[in-house]
Specification:
about 130 residues; alpha+beta; 3 helices; 5 strands; about 40% strand; elongated
């Protein structure tokens, strides 16, 4: 949902402590990183959800994955820790809605091999976002 994407992006890029953990600029991306993006960075993406259809209002429950991606496990974990501080039991601004719930639900960690053979670490979580 575009308004939730915008709220997450604003929350993540607006935090100087998080941005300081990332590569030059503000490398926070929705769904996909541009080619040749320097590590470390943050990626977030919609993982499901939608209207609850239990009230006449536009109550929605969505899950977003948010993760730090870095060349070391420690760096990725530090990014995830800062993301957790920003999001878990906090709120984001969602145009046209009230954010009534934002909580960390499930953690994810994985490692992949870069084309040069070096590991790339992903460390993050899925967050439940409820808006009305």
């Amino acid at each position: 949902m575009k308004v939730v994407d915008a709220g997450l992006y604003s929350k993540l890029t607006g935090d100087t402590a998080l941005v300081a953990l990332l590569s030059a600029g503000t490398p926070v991306f929705n769904m996909q990183t541009p080619p040749n993006t320097s590590l470390p960075y943050v990626v977030f993406f919609s993982a499901g959800g939608g209207p609850d259809n239990i009230t006449p209002s536009d109550l929605r429950s969505m899950v977003y994955g948010v993760k730090g991606v870095a060349s070391t496990l420690t760096a990725a974990a530090n990014i995830d820790a800062r993301i957790d501080t920003l999001l878990h039991n906090n709120s984001i601004t969602v145009s046209g809605y009230t954010n009534i719930w934002l909580a960390r639900e499930t953690e994810v960690q994985l490692v992949e091999d870069a084309p040069d053979g070096n590991p790339i670490y992903h460390y993050g979580a899925y967050y439940r976002i409820r808006i009305d």
